[in-house]
Design goal:
Layout lengths: L3 H15 L7 H8 L16 E8 L5 H12 L16 H6 L6 E9 L2 E9 L7 H8 L4 E7 L6 H12 L3 E7 L8 H12 L7 E2 L8 H11 L12 E10 L3 E10 L1 E3 L3 E4 L5 E3 L2 E5 L3 E4 L1 E3 L3 E5 L13 E4 L17 E7 L5 H14 L4 E7 L3 E8 L2 H15 L3 E3 L6 E5 L2 H7 L3 E4 L11 E16 L3 H10 L3 E7 L4 E9 L7 H8 L5 E12 L1 E8 L2 E2 L5 E4 L3 H15 L7 E7 L2 E8 L15 H21 L8 H4 L4
Parallel strand pairs: 1-3, 1-4, 4-5, 5-6
Antiparallel strand pairs: 2-3, 7-8, 7-16, 8-15, 9-14, 10-11, 10-16, 12-13, 12-15, 17-19, 17-20, 18-19, 21-22, 21-23, 23-25, 23-26, 24-25, 27-28, 27-29, 27-30, 30-31
Helix pairs in contact: 9-10
Amino acid sequence: MITGYRYSIFSMLFKKCCGSEITRWPWVRFSSRRKEKLKFDLKKFPGKYIRNFGIIAHIDHGKSTLSDRLMEFTGNISKQNKNEQVLDKLQVERERGITVKAQTVSLFYDYDGQHYLLNLIDTPGHVDFIFEVNRSLAACEGVILLVDANQGVQAQTVANFNLARSHHLAVIPVLNKIDLKNAKPDDVSNQLTALFGIDKEEILKVSAKYGTGIEKIFRSIIEKIPPPRGDLQKPFRALLYDSWYSQYRGVICLIMVIDGALSVGDEVTSFSTGCTYEIKELGILYPDELPVTELFSGQAGYFIANIKNPKEAVIGDTWYKKCSVVEPLPKINPSKPMVFAGIFPSDQSRTQDLRKAIEKLILNDPSVSVSPETSPALGSGWRLGFLGLLHMEVFCQRLDQEFDAQVIVTTPGVPYKVKIKGEKNIKAYGGEEITITNPLKFPDPNIISEYFEPMVLGTIITPAEFYSEVLKLCMARRAEQKSVQNVDDRTLILVYKFPMSEIITDFFNELKSISSGFASFDYEEIGYEKSHLTKVDILLNGKIVEELSFITHSSQVNDVSRKICMRLKENIEPHLFLIAIQACVRGKVVARETIKALKKNVTAKLYGGDVTRRMKLLQRQKEGKKTMRMIGNIEIGRSAFINILKR
């Protein structure tokens, strides 16, 4: 660790040579921020002077930019720096330009001569990270509903508003990007009034880019969001709503103190595990970790207690002081994974490293489910459940970037259910109804009486001019229309019931394409319905590749099989021998593609002479290719496992 005078010299030399500040690296920032002191005494902020709120919005409506302006206004970060997505700390967030992790920051604001402590939570906007939003709202009393004045109300806006209402939170409507020349604040205000019954006079109009109207937001937060309902005089009780892992300090727990107070040296116990730890460090996020000596009722902060096992930090858990008697807090509803895929190390010697990486990353992303899995071709691995395909891609990218764990991902799919017939078969499978998350475990069709597939209720908000194209797309995905509603003269809300398998891959991309980027989409799970499913095996040169097997609706077997064979043909590199790609259903080939062998000019060394010499070399090459086709290994790139499902 570089600190003090040597840190200053090293920082100056680094900036001169590389042209950037060294403080971009968290391992250096931590050593320097230890010297910071909080200018406010947290004990002077009783519950009535605290506000806990989040920012919710559709993707790309400006949540992270608004968070930057709020922190600049309260002095958490300097206005002299070019602050962009300060709370988006992950490399994957910077590269993709989206928020995938909810982040907390404590703000101090003066209002009518009184100091207020405001705990802000910036949440993701994509539907695949809805669990981040859900658990963040459990620690809030109110939200800022941010809407782009140019794009208007979109699907995730509606979903987030309903989610906030289900948590009984105060909602502050804010129109962002009013500085754009195509902004339509009056039209969007009419949409908010028509959909949510919001009074137009309550809607704030701001520009997060230029900081216009930021002070109005602070005044609304203090006036409209109620203070936390905790009691400082009661025994300590806190909600654990986030956590992450540090190599040298163990698990760092982010809590919302509901009742009582917590000090360094106190012993706390987890309701879920019953384990007791001594508090080694307390702090708030400012936005970096800033140590304090105490946390009080209504305040958000972190604690470090030498927790080495990531499984002992359970999201939604209640923590209390040792030997005290308290009631546990209501639990956060667990997420329901809707996309499952096998994750295997590219090198089996690094299986243990991958296991530790997954455990630590799941601590930071608890919406992922994990179960061990073994593959004859890929070895030991895990079957992971995700909230969507983007969620899966981001998780694998974080494994690579944060833990240097390169993985092979098998074909992603959704969970199906089947009913087994026959008492003997029911006993063998442990029940009449079983859930299938892995195509390899799909039972013999002869013992299945009924099939079920997961369904979702999808909400599409689109300009009226694209209605016919959107309708065609939905019908092609086996959708059933539930309702059509006019938001205004130019915008429609369409509600469809979809099979989950039809929307997890490229539905959103196609929707954006046919609507020139104006349509938006959101969905929620509504359970299972009867269906008719078929398992399809993929064969390469007559050998089944179990990792490529998939389950699809019986009406789409031929179409999907043909497209997957084509996709494999595009992703598998040609070899020195012919490769036959076949899709089979119960031994019957339903689709086939062929990858031609690479040609090697074995006659190049000939410069004349008898033609029999040439024919002999060509015949020997032909016989060799037959042998290679029988025993040769076919290499499949890692990208093929995801690409084969993209239509």
